[in-house]
Fold Myeloid-associated differentiation marker-like protein 2.
Amino acid sequence: MESTGGPYLNMAAVTSPVGIARSLQMAFGCTTFSLVVHQGGFSAAYGTFCMFVWTFCFAITVFILACEFTRLHGCLSLSWGNFTAAFAMLATLMSVTAAVIYPLYFVQLDCYPIGCKVRDFRIAASVFAGLLFVAYAAEVFLTRAKPGQVTSYMATVSGLLKIVQAFVACIIFGALVNDSQYSKYAATQWCVAVYSFCFVVTVVVVAFSVTGKTALLWFPFERSVVVYTFGAVLLYISAAVIWPVFCFDSKYGSPWRPAACAKGRCPWDSQLVIAIFTYVNLLLYVVDLAYSQRIRFVSHL
């Protein structure tokens, strides 16, 4: 717990560059979902996802800002630096996704059939959703590890990449459950096992870093993470080879999108999404492995 000496309220929590960025996040997030609820409206899974992103990020940002301002974060059993860095990266990814999805599915230039008032509210909500993403990206930029700086692991490139890897894996899982026909071959089931294993271990690494419990482990956490990252690269290489062969080779699947495949319900589309993001995550793990050779873990910041 932090010392009780000095002022109880931390004015730097709202006046520093990071504090200003968090204040803007709170303002933009509240404005965005208020515009949507008041007149913009939302529907279906896409709209529900966007509303969840904006309300979830707003709630956690308020919590972080309140804890920083009152200095109560010292009472929490968390590695505060790791927690805030991890959330900022996650919120950046979630907010940019919502900022793309909402206007794509709900914004139109003409007034018919929703009416000009609803259209204007949806456009305004989309603008503030974009500003919300910029505010979270600004926090990531401001809090990221600088060369030679002693900082929390989650603020390093390797730590931030862990969040991106888990996020990309969630996109892969979403495509897998969307009629991807992965159970058709044992080889594609192996790929699903690769995605699942790497996702679970990555989440465990983030969880141990955020809770600051790495020092309690009986094995060297830093070395284990590097070994795991190397193993994840090898596993993703196997998936990057196997998945396209068993989905797009004419012997097992189709190299071209079937003409009779319904839009939005086509297994080929899901398979293509999985293939693309498999290569994306492979690249992320390779970059992570390269950067992990240059950092040292600090779990208590």
In short: The CA atoms of residues 183 and 189 lie 6 Å apart. The mean pLDDT is 91. The chain has two domains: 8-153, 156-300.
